Amino acid sequence: MIRYMLRRGAEMLITLLVASFLVFLVTEFSPGNVARKTLGAFALQSQVDLLYEKLHLNDPLLVRYVRWAGVLTGLQADPLQDPALKLDFKDPRGDQYFGNFGYSTLYKAPVNDVLWDRLGNTALLAGLAFAVIVPLSLLLGVLAGMRAGTTLDRVVSTISIIMTSIPEFALGVILVAVFVVWLKLLPGTSPLKNNSGWPIWTQLILPVSVLALYDAGYVARIVRASMAEVMAKPYVRTAVLKGLPWRTVILRHALRNALIAPFTVILLQINWLIGGVVVTELVFAYPGFGRMLLDASLFGDVSLIEAATLIALFVATATQLLSDIGYRLLDPQARR
């Protein structure tokens, strides 16, 4: 297992290296001059030319990537903080440290000061939603799979399909209309500020509900299909014919095998909860990671786009690694 984890960790690093080059390539060849995008549309041409020369943007692409990676890993000082440029880009951590993502032109602050705060907000939202999605979907999926073809199975499947079919923005509008406009029980926005007149915990209820209702139906359908397949296996029928209690049959023989297939799907929901909830964050004005990435893309904030994309890629590869390890722990055949 240790050798497998080391090999998968090395593959993960290679994936991140290749992905970082592709991210750099896309941002470098996006419309507009990198120096102009860094300084903004109203910067003087003399300032743009000076920064163009300072960043050595005439060098070959691979050389520029190595220089960018050097700044990111702390092997090279950030050229944007050079006092000669008079950009007033100041980072309290200094101009040379590991994880230096540069300066955000949108928020007028170092990327690290913006990125981790927004990522923490999304992690809070994702963690609460995940804590609801997993037990709810497992409960509904197992119950429906145990009674495949019955009224309970049809009811659970119908509700799951309906919830998954409703877009996030529509589900958000429906919940706002009911709980904000009609019942007046919850706030309509989630700025995560105490001075908004509502406690912070109340501001999280609607965004978490939208994510949980939208995603739990999908996961429940996956669990239901796996559970129904396991319940038809010969060893389950044999356990029932031997007179074992129904509870023992489910918990000791069926449930663990039924969770092998959905395990990867459940962990992959973390990727969506971190980088794919931009619609929910926009509907409720939530200061999260996805909304930040959208704003950076619309504004053309190159440094923030690169940093956010790398973080999202790291989360995706890390969850894939965890799912592979968990799959091997659950399935003895995979270990062999």
Describe this structure in words.
By secondary structure, the chain is mostly helical. It folds into two domains: 2-107, no CATH class; 113-335, MetI-like fold, CATH 1.10.3720. The protein has helices at residues 2-28, 34-39, 45-54, 61-73, 111-146, 151-165, 168-182, 200-203, 205-231, 234-241, 246-258, 260-275, 278-283, 289-299, 302-330, 332-335, and strands at residues 103-104, 109-110. The model has no long low-confidence stretch (mean pLDDT 86).
Please render the helix and strand layout as text.
Layout: H1 2-28, H2 34-39, H3 45-54, H4 61-73, E1 103-104, E2 109-110, H5 111-146, H6 151-165, H7 168-182, H8 200-203, H9 205-231, H10 234-241, H11 246-258, H12 260-275, H13 278-283, H14 289-299, H15 302-330, H16 332-335
Helix pairs in contact: 1-15, 5-6, 5-9, 5-12, 6-9, 7-9, 9-11, 9-12, 10-11, 12-15, 14-15
